[in-house]
Amino acid sequence: MKELRLIVSLLFIVVAFSGFWSGKSPKEIKEDNRKERVERLKTNNETLQLLYKYAPEAKNMILNSYGYATFSNTGVSLVLFSAEGGKGVAHDNKTGMYTYMNMASGGVGLGLGVKEFRAVFLFKDKKAYDSFVNNGWEANAQADVAAKYDESGGAFGAAETVASGVRLYKLTQNGLALQATIQGTKYWKDKELNKN
Questions:
Q1: Phi/psi zone of residue 45: left (φ > 0), alpha (ψ -120 to 50 degrees), beta?
Q2: What SS3 state is found at 76?
Q3: End-to-end CA distance of the chain
Q4: Which regions of 4-97 does DSSP assign to beta strands (E)?
Q5: Residue 180 carries which DSSP code?
Q6: pLDDT in tens, 95-140
Q7: Total structural domains within the chain
Q8: Mean pLDDT across the stretch 78-98?
């Protein structure tokens, strides 16, 4: 009986925070979605500028890639549990089209605090890009990014291969992350924002 009450309580919380009972009209929801798209594209541009600041070679890598995706993430660690949530966009360099996406992950480990970071994925070809965008993607491995700095602060080889045809840059407020842990992270399309 306790398990049933817990399940019902969790379902209620999920529905309550999903906007199901938001009381907004379809017109208001459409306007909110438009504002969210604009905000995500702004964050995408900020993320790219931050990347180019710390890894100037990334600009050519992105231009030569089939496409890329940027995510802005917030991670919270509470003693033994950690969770990350974020949002972003994927960009097809061939068509110029954007796809709005979400990400989430959870884990177990010691820690306390909140951290913000940005992630930039580069896709070598259409197959890698389409798989990430259309099927969603789950990272089950940990990628350690060893960013090497020269005397002027530039970075070399800071993008790490995390899957076939997929490379990752992970940035913090202080620059390129020395360790890009993406284990247990799920990426998927935002159905609402991708509606026409």
A1: alpha
A2: strand
A3: 44
A4: 67-92
A5: B
A6: 999 999 999 876 655 454 446 788 999 999 999 999 999 988 776 6
A7: 1
A8: 83
Half-sphere exposure of residue 16: CA atoms within 13 angstroms, side-chain side: 6
Contact 170, 145 (CB under 8 A): yes
Using DSSP bridges, classify how beta strands 175-176 and 166-172 pair: parallel, antiparallel or unpaired. Answer: antiparallel
Rounded-to-integer distance, Cα 163 and Cα 161, Å: 6
Q: Is residue 13 part of a domain?
A: no
Contact predicate 63/93, CB 8 Å: yes
Burial of residue 174 (CB within 10 Å: 0-12, 13-18, 19+) is exposed
Q: Looking up tokens 């459409």, which residue turns up?
A: 30
* pLDDT at residue 76 greater than cutoff 60: no
Is 173 a domain residue?
yes
From the list 120, 123, 67, the residue with the least C-alpha distance to 96 is 67
Specify the amino acid at residue 164: S
pTM: 0.74
Q: Establish if 91 belongs to a structural domain.
A: yes
Report the DSSP beta bridge partners of residue 156. Answer: 148
Whether residue 94 is predicted with pLDDT greater than 60 in this model: the reply is yes
9 domain-assigned? no
In whole angstroms, give the CA distance from residue 191 to residue 35: 15
Are 23 and 145 a contacting pair, CB within 8 Å? no
Choose among 114, 123, 124: nearest CA to 172. Answer: 114
Q: Which domain holds residue 68?
A: 20-189
